[in-house]
Structure formats: C-alpha cells, structure tokens
Amino acid sequence: MLESLLHLSVEDMRLRHALAEPGERAGLIDALAAAFQRRAGELHCAIRTYLPPASVRPGGLLEGVALAHKDVFETGAHTPGCGRPPREGTPGPIATVLQRLQDQGALNLGALAMAEHACGATAENPHGPTLANPLDIAAAVGGSSSGCAVAVAAGLVPASLGTDTAGSVRMPAATCGLVGLKPTRGAIPADGVAALAPTLDTVGVIGRGALDVACVYAALLPAGMAAPALPGDMAGIAEYLSRPRRWRVASTLGTAGARADVAAEMTRFEQRVDALARVDACPAPDLDRLNRLAQIVLHAEAALTLAGSVRRELATLAPATQAIALPGWAMPAIWYRHAMARIAPLRAAFLASHLGGADLLLTPCLPQGVPDRAAVTTTSPAFDPRALAALHRHHAYINYLGLPALVLPAGIDAQGRPVCVQAIGAPGSEPLLLAFAHQFALPFSALLQR
To answer: Any idea where the Amidase domain is (predicted)?
Structure first.
C-alpha cells in the first residue's frame, strides 16, 4: 500500500482522493503521510514531518494532494529552521503561500532540508547529512532547495515549494531532472517566508512535470488571478498547457561553450523545438556584468538579513553562509545603490534585445553537465571551485532582473545525467513558460529508464 502511494502526480493524488469513499479518505491521508515519513527518513530529506489533518478542504484544485516544502516557511505551528539545528521560537502566522495551498485542499507533510540560511548552491550543510541525488548517487544535488528536489525526484511528493535567490529552485531541479519555476518578482507573496536577499528572493515550485508545477503555481495565485491564462481547474490547466501554438523562440544554446555531450543534447532539443517553432539564434546576455550586480545586491542584503545570526552564531555558521553574509558588511554603500538603480534600465534593455520578438529565450542551464557531488563539496579532496561557481552562472542574473524563468529536462548526457535548458520570459509569462515545458520537456520517466 505504501509503495503504491509514491511516484504519484498531482492529478493521480487528486483522483485517488476523489474516488475514495468519504469514510476511507482519512485512511488514505494517513497512508500518504506514512509513505512520506518512511522514505523521507531513508533519504534524510525532511527536517520535520507533520501529522496530517483527518480531512482536507473539499473542492479545491489540490484536494487530497500531499506536498512538502523547504524549511523556510512559517506553518503557524512551527518556526522554520532555515537549515540550522532546531531551535525554540514562537511561531508566526502561517505563510500566505502555505495558507493558499491549504485553502485549495493540499496537505503539508513536512519541512525539507536545505543549505543553511539558503546560502549554498548544493546540498552541503554541516548540520546534517549531504543529500544523495535519487538519479545518481555520485551526482551533485543543487541547492539551496535541495530537499525539495530530492523529495520530488524520489517520488515522495509530486511538487514542492522552495525559494530562489540566485537559482536555488532551478539548480536543484536541473541536477535532478525536474521542472523548476522561478516566478516574476512579486508575483507570489513572501510574508511568512524567511528572507535572504529580499530584492532577489522568490518563492518557486519544483515538480516532476509542468502540469504538476502549473497546478501548484495556480493555487498560489490570489483568487480570480488564475484566469484566463491558467484556469482554476485541473482540466482547464491541462488544456491550456497542451494547446497548439506556433512558438517564437530566441535561443543562446549555441553560445554556451558546453561540454560536447551536453552541447549535442541541447542541439537535438533545439531541433525538436524548431519543428514546431520559429527558433532564432541570438547573442548571450552579458553574464559577467549582470551577475556582478546580482552579487552586490545579494551580499549587501544578506549582511542585513543575517546580521543577528552572524552575531549569535558566527562560530557555527557554514562557510557558504559566511561567504555570502560577511562581504556585505565591508561593501561601500554606493555599490549597492548603483546596482539597485541599474535594475530597471538593464531589464528593459534585456527584454528589448532578447525577447522583443520572441515568446521566450532559451539559455543553457548547466553547460558542463551535472557535476559529481565530490567536485562541489568543499570538504572533499576532489573539490573544484570552478565546478561550484558554474552551478549558478546562468541563473543568478535572472533574479537581479526580476524575470520569470523555468528549467526543464531536455536530454541525457553521456553519464546518464539530465541535461536541462532554461526558458526565460517577460514579466507575467509564467503560464507560457509552463506550456512550453509541458510540450517539450523530456518526461521524467525517461531519466529513470536511462
């Protein structure tokens, strides 16, 4: 019974709940929680598990759907640990995003592991075991929403909420062959969510497929905002995502300097898209400049956000946390003011040059492939700082510009690991990005059968 409740999609879970007799639904909810607790314990991906309610709110988009989320959200009963050892604290009001999921009938089964204070591009955290990639034990798991990716890839839940400050939803999704959505800045409320750099922070969604992500994303939107782009019901969302379109796509996939096997997979993906789209090559963004500005904002705001932790816990803070928080204390204020002042004009220039005549822009995600876990673990003899830096090179600048972006699996490399690409859109284009992923992403089942 427990095994049959793993690897289910949002649609499967909702259907099981709907078909169960009313008197059987409490037992089904308990079974979902038991399956989650057992596998989460084996994988070390959950910091805390929750007892589910006996019933859920009926009639919602996510009625009976079991989810679990990064340990940064106020639940109303527990204060988030943010990747640190559990501590006592007075819980705040439930985060709006969790309340909206609950209002749509979703279950919250647990708080998932993460890099300390969301400061890390991998699953490395000195306060707990390093998580294993369910697709390949030798491969890295991206961070900081690492537990989200592990739980979804291992089939514990069909989708999960994380946060993305410099790629922290998209990197773990890419390393585990999942769909990861970072919405437009401000589209999803952040109250009740532990902050790192508020200008860059975004609540995002990781799921096995675009339909799973789209259903959770639609549930996060305020009432009345889902239509007409994303309807408020499962059938309507599926129809929207599957609707035939003549795509207009700009692509920088050929400019990546990618490893040969990764480049070959991206080329095959681009050719597949080209059969149903107009694909035009365009120059790559100025990554060095944009990422430098994003880094200034990250350091400056993290220094303020984590000031209390630095004062209280400096001796036990992870090296990655110190590397992000401490530079901001010494940074000239004029650097931060300059970086903030440049966001609007640089976003306008980016949209004009890369998305002026296109629905979306395709960029590489991890052009050197998913790295070995040892190569990006700072305590490993095989640690390569270049491999660690490469994880967020194609992600951080999008947070700075405040644009929506989505990663999707596009192929399988010579090592049997996923090759993902990134689709970037104009503000508010999340439904279009999800439709693109629904139509072109490599099914997750193909990664399991590699």
So the answer is: 57-434
Measured CA to CA, the distance from residue 116 to residue 83 in angstroms comes to 4
Q: How far apart are CA 371 and CA 353, in angstroms?
A: 32
The whole-number pLDDT of residue 227 equals 46
Nearest-angstrom CA–CA distance, 379 and 381: 7
- Catalytic annotation, residues: 70, 144, 168
Peptide bond into 144 cis (omega under 30): yes
Query: CA-to-CA distance for 342 and 360, rounded, in angstroms?
Result: 23
Band (334; pLDDT cuts 50, 70, 90): very high
The model's pTM is 0.97
Cis peptide preceding 160, ω within 30 of 0: no
- Cα(299)–Cα(133) distance, integer angstroms: 29
**What is the pLDDT, as a whole number, of residue 119?**
97
Amino acid (one-letter) located at 285: P
Q: Report how far residue 27's alpha carbon sits from residue 31's, in angstroms, rounded to the nearest whole number.
A: 6
Task: Confirm if 166 and 396 have CB atoms less than 8 A apart.
Answer: yes
**C-alpha to C-alpha distance for 270 and 277, rounded to whole angstroms:** 10
Looking up tokens 């992870």 gives: 318
Identify whether the C-beta of residue 403 lies closer than 8 Å to the C-beta of residue 348.
no
d(CA 59, CA 298): 41
Q: How crowded is residue 29: how many other Cβ atoms within 10 Å of its Cβ?
A: 21
Structural domains in the chain, sorted by start:
3-449 (3.90.1300.10)
